[in-house]
Amino acid sequence: MPIDATVMTNVKADRVRRTADLSSRKHRERSGRFLIEGPQAVREALTWQPGVVRDLYVAVDGTEPDAGFANPTVASLAGLAMGEGIYVHKATPDVVAHMSRDAQGVVAVGDLEACRARLTQAPSTPRPFIAAFWQVRDPGNAGTVIRSADAAGCDAVVMVGSCVDVFNPKVIRATTGSLFHLPVLAMDENAFFVFCADHATTVMAADVYGTEGRPPESLPDVVREGAALDGSIAVLFGNEARGLDPVLLEQADIITSIPIYGKAESLNLGTSAAVMLMTLAMSSRIERM
Fold it and tell me: Coiled-coil region(s) at which residues (predicted)?
């Protein structure tokens, strides 16, 4: 598709307002569209999931039809989009900023159902490595843990229970594009444990305290023993403030914790997920060497 040579200059235009409104879940569901902000997230969407991108809005340095792109990064993304047959719209920096304060010169609009269909494809690997997160409510935390799961080579992420919408622009921005790299499923607590049972997946709950009569095993001990790491694993992390509910801990096959060697009381969710998932990922690769 061609690039629209007409530069969008009216910050009050309906298209600008509709795009900005995608920051609201109500408007995302109503329109069937979602917002992708900033060069990195847009680049990953165009590279790995171009089929979900419907429009790209890029900042230019003037109002004339031949106005140049605001910077080389924006020009590169426009070229990538046009190569995929995606319509590119030129706009003034003010217009792009009204669409998103975090645009950094580029905003994409994606097809909600097309992306949702891809995200909900269960992993087909024989021994899936899954990161699961229960009742994660903070958008920044949700995006960070999805990014950590991607970096650790997880085959899927499962958002368990009442979690923040993964199409929240803040979530997508915090993933830095990882949302477009791996499946991100959503299911309730019962469905999660049924899913794990059906896929012969060991549920490893990450928890500092464990339950009465069942203290957590230290992560280094779990890795050293190795038996629990054979086969498929789903590592379940809890809510940012409350951790995991005791009912969930009772259903887990293993409860493990990250040892604290210094004086810090605990680690936050993002750090815990990164440490535990990367430890397990590196351990599994050492064992295969």
Answer: none
| pLDDT, tens digit (0-9, with 9 covering 90-100), for 109-121 | 999 999 999 988 8
Please enumerate in sequence order all residues whose Cβ is within 8 A of that of 265, keeping only pairs 6 or more positions apart, or say none: none
Q: Read off the pTM.
A: 0.93
Tokens of 264: 């810090």
Q: Are 88 and 8 a contacting pair, CB within 8 Å?
A: no
- Strands 201-206, 87-91: pairing is unpaired
Q: What CATH number does residue 132 fall under?
A: 3.40.1280.10
Same domain, 96 and 231: no
- Residues in CB range of 222: below 8 A, 6 or more apart: 204, 228, 229, 254, 256
Strands 87-91, 3-8: pairing kind: parallel
Question: What is the tens place of the pLDDT at every residue in 242-288?
Answer: 889 999 999 999 999 999 999 998 899 999 999 999 999 988 776 54
212-249 pLDDT, tens digit per residue, is: 888 999 999 999 887 667 789 999 999 988 889 999 99
**In which domain, by residue range, is 76 found?**
3-116
First vs last C-alpha separation in the chain: 48
Strands 129-134 and 184-187, by their bridges, are unpaired
